[in-house]
Design goal:
The chain is of the alpha+beta class. The chain folds into 2 domains: 73 residues, no CATH class; 50 residues, no CATH class. 24% of the residues lie in helices and 11% in strands. The strands form 3 sheets. Strands 1-4 form a two-stranded antiparallel sheet. β5, α4 and β6 form a beta-alpha-beta unit. It is globular and about 45 Å long. The model has no long low-confidence stretch (mean pLDDT 84).
Length: 147
């Protein structure tokens, strides 16, 4: 993704553009929205049902996931992204060492590696963008029967 905007978690929750990212038990996609942290008047946060609660999609907050998720200070927003999911592609061997390996990973890569990675991503974005396939842990389904 090419980051276009940074929001606080509170801004993300309150921004009408991201209402569709809030939990909706009526569909698998609605259950997997990323807008799951509601700021409370007390200064605390409510974790709504999601992939991050235990069990998944329950009303039982997962404090470990909640702490980890809220340890970042920004929600990154973009309309320029590619999500491959079940249709993941192979990366060129020379880019394998230039990838974050986990959530929250931060690193200072050499300028040449950053340029190579940006070129690779820009090339993909000129051909396709958005969600290409559903996440790997979703059932194997097509768009016609996705509920």
């Amino acid at each position: 993704m090419k980051v276009e905007e940074k929001l606080s978690f509170e801004q993300y929750w309150n921004d009408k553009r991201f209402e569709s990212k809030k939990f909706d038990s009526g569909s698998l996609i609605g259950k997997n929205g990323g807008n799951i942290y509601e700021p409370l008047l007390s200064g605390e946060w409510k974790q709504h049902p999601s992939f991050h609660t235990v069990p998944r999609f329950s009303r039982h907050e997962n404090e470990k996931n909640k702490r980890r998720d809220l340890s970042g200070i920004n929600v990154l927003v973009s309309r320029k992204f590619v999500y491959f999911g079940q249709a993941a592609i192979s990366l060129p061997q020379d880019l394998a060492g230039c990838l974050p390996t986990a959530r929250g990973h931060k690193c200072n890569f050499p300028h040449a590696a950053v340029e190579k990675w940006e070129s690779f991503i820009e090339n993909i974005l000129t051909r396709q963008s958005g969600m290409i396939a559903y996440p790997i842990d979703f059932p194997k389904i097509n768009e016609n029967n996705f509920e």
